[in-house]
Design a protein that fits this description.
heterodimer; A: 12 helices; about 75% helix; globular; B: 8-stranded mixed beta sheet; 4-stranded antiparallel beta sheet; 11 helices; 14 strands; about 30% helix
């Protein structure tokens, strides 16, 4: 099968996946105990008439399945309703914060790939030497340390002691300002460290396995330079398993952002989510959870396509 | 001077259990265009020898001493750069299991043409053309279309043809074929051997064929070296080894071949196993398994001698039949468990007119 057909086929599978995600999101949010009306009215006693009016205004008087259908159909057009708390359109609330999280996530993922793959390759090539052992120690620490602790440590060392970063993000300057981008490095490194450690070890073991394969000897027997043998033949095959796990790391990075944004007072959607969960702001929670689900599905889609590109045997 | 001369080659593997002596003072030569067979059981040092020629011995192995002279140049004195320009270009290798020898994620065309581009300095299009020609010459139908297929889209026999095409692509002077047909079924094996024979004749390429299949050697080779525990025990023109094997080990190998029309219930085997290459038996390494062994065999390590004259033989320059032991025709002591007589084709015409056969009788 050609790569195009594979992409098309794989793309079609995402449609039922997206529907499933929307159903789960909606269902889970509505399973949270607590009536949103109480949060809207700040727990004041209301006469039934007013309560009915408010319920009707937010569509809360409809049966749950009608609420779901209404929500999905308008969500498909980008309309997630209005926030119960601020009464702003949900999409606007998300859009003002999404760029921050997006930049932080991309930076975290970039830091992960840029450090994990080369260090993994080096550790594999110099396996069982001091270099390899050092990478093993780093990996163990990186996987073991919780995000919030690492975030606090980085803040303590780089912002408080060394004074290289401000303690609070320079939010007033906008996400694409130099100061903000530099500051974003700290949370990005915090989120990326665990993934880096994991991917580095995976890259190493995958590479060690590939280096022992017969085709490597064939490539050497052709007289190719060692660099070509490793970078062209071995790397491509070792990346196959790494790509899959890297895609799963996208999910970890997204979920990690929720905690890390709070540690760094970072104005992203993770912090917005935690904030609104406390206030039962259903429209906002639903939209963010759906967004996270879609992001994970997309990441997996990209991983599968990359996987098929790297390994022709799986374009079934 | 022969095209390839190997002299006193010693390859060692430094393992945690001790030093594995994979080859011991190994010497032989291959002439231009010659087909040279290397035979022995697993662990005899056949593959190590061929990897040593390419200087592709992996850690913890090292080529400890000796010389490998290819067209007069000692390969062991070359730097890595010079060695690389020989690999795949003047000396090429065909590996045992084609399925694993090919990289699954590149097209076969790319795997052939990358060596062509590298060694012959051709551009993409010219290398592609040459690769397609090579694919055609190894009998791959509609080679131009199959150029962009991946290895998993080929059958086992076709994969082996691709591996051969890689070896042939830069028109080498010597091809080292390490059990090229072991992973294939018999009909495909015959085709592949025929193909090797064809291309060797067409391009006048010398072939060092490593195998444990004496039938393949008989069909294919001009001269043969029988290896045991890292050194030759018999080296001779192929007919001599078949009609008149000298070394007890060669005799044992010959008598282990099952033959059509043979009514034995059990196949003959050589008792025992290849010795531990870390701690080899003293004297003749084969003596613990040898039915002809005498007390002196435990003390003296025999060297190759000319079978006719009995004089010490020069393994590099001698053309005659040489063997490290002539006991098979000599006097026997102790219990002899088997006896071997080798007869000519008149007695046992094989299906394809195979040139020799052996009969074994229990005493």
């Amino acid at each position: 099968m050609s790569l195009q057909r594979f992409v098309l086929k794989r793309g079609l599978i995402t449609i039922p996946l997206l529907l499933g995600i929307s159903l789960l999101t909606f269902g889970m949010v509505h399973a949270i105990p607590g009536d949103p009306i109480d949060f809207i009215t700040l727990f004041t006693d209301l006469d039934p008439q007013t309560e009915m009016e408010i319920r009707a205004e937010y569509g809360l008087d409809q049966p749950v399945y009608i609420q779901y259908i209404d929500w999905v159909t308008s969500a498909a057009t980008g309309d997630f309703g209005r926030s119960i708390i601020t009464r702003d359109p949900v999409i606007d609330e998300i859009m003002t914060r999404l760029p921050y999280t997006l930049v932080m996530g991309i930076m975290a993922f970039g830091v992960t790939l840029v450090t994990a793959i080369p260090t993994g390759v080096i550790a594999a090539y110099y396996r069982n030497t001091k270099i390899d052992q050092a990478s093993r120690v780093f990996a163990l620490l990186g996987i073991a340390i919780p995000n919030f602790l690492l975030g606090l440590l980085l803040l303590l060392i780089f912002a408080s002691w060394l004074d290289l970063f401000p303690i609070l993000p320079p939010t007033d300057q906008g996400i694409l300002s130099y100061d903000m981008l530099v500051y974003t490095l700290l949370p990005a490194i915090t989120i990326g460290t665990g993934s880096t450690a994991l991917l580095m070890r995976l890259m190493r073991s995958s590479m060690v396995e590939e280096l022992d394969k017969d085709y490597v000897r064939t490539a050497r027997a052709k007289g190719l330079p060692e660099r070509t043998v490793v970078q062209k033949h071995v790397l491509r095959n070792s990346l196959i398993s790494v790509v899959t796990v890297a895609a799963i790391q996208v999910a970890f990075i997204i979920s990690g952002s929720v905690v890390v944004e709070i540690v760094f007072s970072y104005p992203g959607i993770g912090r917005l989510l935690v904030n609104r969960v406390g206030n039962r702001d259903f429209p906002v929670i639903q939209a963010i959870v759906l967004l996270i689900g879609v992001a994970v599905i997309l990441a997996n889609f990209v991983a599968d396509v990359l996987y098929a590109y790297l390994d022709p045997r799986i374009r079934y | 001077m022969a095209m390839l001369e190997v002299e006193d080659l010693n390859v060692r593997f430094y393992t945690d259990d001790g030093v594995v002596k994979a080859t011991n003072d190994l010497s032989y030569r291959i002439e231009a265009g010659e087909r040279f067979g290397v035979v022995g059981e697993s662990g005899a040092g056949k593959s190590v020898t061929s990897l040593a020629l390419m200087r592709l011995i992996d850690e913890p192995g090292v080529i400890e001493s000796g010389e490998i002279r290819f067209k007069g140049q000692n390969l062991l004195e070359m730097n890595e750069e010079e060695m690389r320009s020989l690999r795949g270009n003047e000396i090429a290798m065909i590996f045992q299991d084609a399925e694993t020898a090919l990289n699954p994620s590149y097209t076969v065309g790319e795997q052939i043409s990358e060596a062509i581009r590298y060694h012959l300095d051709l551009d993409e299009a010219a290398a592609r053309e040459r690769a397609i020609e090579t694919l055609e010459s190894v009998g791959i139908p509609s080679a131009a279309e199959r150029y962009s297929d991946y290895p998993h889209e080929f059958s086992g026999g076709m994969q082996q043809r691709v591996v051969i095409a890689i070896a042939l692509s830069c028109d080498p002077d010597l091809i080292i074929a390490d059990e090229p047909t072991t992973a294939l079924d018999v009909t495909i094996e015959a085709q592949i051997l025929e193909l090797l024979e064809e291309v060797a004749t067409e391009f006048d390429t010398a072939i060092q064929l490593i195998t444990h299949d004496l039938g393949v050697v008989a069909e294919f080779c001009d001269r043969v070296m029988v290896m045991y525990a890292g050194h030759p025990v018999e080296m001779a023109p192929v007919e001599d080894v078949y009609y008149n094997p000298q070394h007890p080990y060669t005799v044992g190998l010959m008598s282990s071949i099952p033959r059509i029309g043979d009514d034995r219930d059990r196949l003959q085997t050589i008792p025992g196993r290849m010795p531990d290459l870390i701690e080899m038996p003293p004297g003749c390494n084969f003596h613990p398994r040898c039915p002809y062994a005498e007390e002196s065999c435990t003390r003296v390590d025999p060297q190759l001698v000319d079978v006719e004259t009995g004089d010490p033989a020069d393994p590099i320059n001698s053309d005659a039949q040489t063997a490290a032991c002539l006991a098979h025709t000599g006097e026997l002591t102790g219990e002899l468990e088997y006896e071997v007589t080798v007869r000519g084709e008149d007695d046992f015409p094989g299906p394809d007119g195979a040139s020799s056969s052996a009969e074994v009788t229990d005493r």
